[in-house]
Amino acid sequence: MGSIFLSALFGISLGTPLDFISLILGINSFKFFLAYKGSFMVNDELLMEGLKKCKSLGALAMVHAENGDAVFEGQKRMIELGITGPEGHALSRPPVLEGEATARAIRLASFVNTPLYVVHVMSINAMEEIARARKSGQRVVGEPVVSGLLLNDSVLWDPDFHFAARYVMSPPIRAAGHGTALQAALAAGVLQLVGTDHCTFNSTQKALGIGDFRKIPNGVNGMEERMHLVWDTMVASGQISVTDYVRITSTECARIFNIYPRKGAILVGSDADIIILNPNSSFKISSKSHHYRTDTNVYEGWTGKGKVETTIAGGRVVWENDELKVIPGAGKYIEMPPFSYLFDGIDKADAKYLSSLRAPVKRSTT
C-alpha cells in the first residue's frame, strides 16, 4: 500500500519529518503497531499524536490491533506453563486482545475525528468492533486477509514443529468459526476489502523458534494466491457477486488510497492493469510451483475454481500460459495524493463539534 511504519526503530518522529516524507514520497498512509512490545509498539499517547498528524496531512492512519502489553504477559504465562511450541503463539494472544486493541484504536480515532484503517482483521471480536463503529457512522475500514478467511488454528497444534511453525503470524490464525464469520462480514459489507499481509519466511528461518515460539518469525504467504482463493471461497460459493469481487480485490483499495480511477478501473486514462480470470479453470497451489523463494506454502495442496490466466500491467502482458514475462525496471512508483474520500465532511463534523461545546463559559472572577 505504500504505508510508512511508525516506529522508533525506523527513526521516524511525529514532527516535521512526517510532513517531509509525505510531501516527497507521495505517501498517504501511516501504520501504527499496537503490538510488539519493545520494538514496533506505540503507546496511546504516541498513537493519538500520530492520529492528529495523519488528520492534518490528509493521510490514512492504519493500525495493527493487538494489545502489546497483554500479549507480552500472555507470552510469559505460556513459557511459565512450559508451552514453548507454535501453539503457544496463538494461546498468548487470544481474540480478546485483538478486540480490545481494535476498540481502543477506533475510540481514539473517533476522539480525534480522523479515518481509521484496521489491517488484517483476524477475529470475530475485532470485526464486531468495526461493525459497531461503522453503524454509528464512524469512518473505519476493516481489512481481512486470505489466511484469516480460510485457515483455522488447528494447524498450530500439529506435532511436526516445522509444519506448525509455517502458520505463525500476528494476529494469529483463529479457531474454526472466526473465518466463516469474517467471510459473512465481507459479503455483507461490514469489512471492505481483502489484503494478504504477505510476509514469508523459509523453514530455516521459522526454525529459529524451536524451543521458544516467541522467536518464530511472524508471517505467511498470500500475495500469489489471493485472487484465486477469494474467487473460489467467495464467488464460486455464491457468497458475493462478480462485481463485489472486483470491488473487494481492486476498486475499493484504489479508492481508499486515493488512486482511483488511475487504478481499480478499466476506463480511458486508467493504467490498463487487468487480470483475465477463467471461472471454469482449476488451480492447485504448491510450493513446488509457486513463485516465492520459500520452500513452504500455507495453502499447500489447495485446489479450487477460478484461475488467473492472463495478467496485463500498464497494457503489457506480464503473465500468460503459466509463464511470468516481467521485465526488470518496468515498474513505476505511484504517488498517492492525500485526503481520500474518507476525509469528506471531516471539517464540517469538526465545526459542528466546536459549535456544540457552549464553551468557554464567561464567568466573573470577583
From TrEMBL:
Similarity comment: family membership: Belongs to the metallo-dependent hydrolases superfamily. Hydantoinase/dihydropyrimidinase family.
Pfam families named in the record: Amidohydro_1 (PF01979)
- What superkingdom does the record give? Eukaryota
Native organism is Solanum stoloniferum
Where in the numbering of this chain does the Amidohydrolase-related domain appear?
A: 37-318
Question: Which residues are modified to N6-carboxylysine?
Answer: K31
What catalytic activity is recorded?
5,6-dihydrouracil + H2O = 3-(carbamoylamino)propanoate + H(+)
Q: What is this protein called?
A: dihydropyrimidinase
Consult the record and explain the modifications the protein receives after translation. Answer: Carbamylation allows a single lysine to coordinate two divalent metal cations.
User: Might you give the EC number(s) for this enzyme?
Assistant: 3.5.2.2
- State the UniProt keywords alphabetically: Hydrolase, Metal-binding
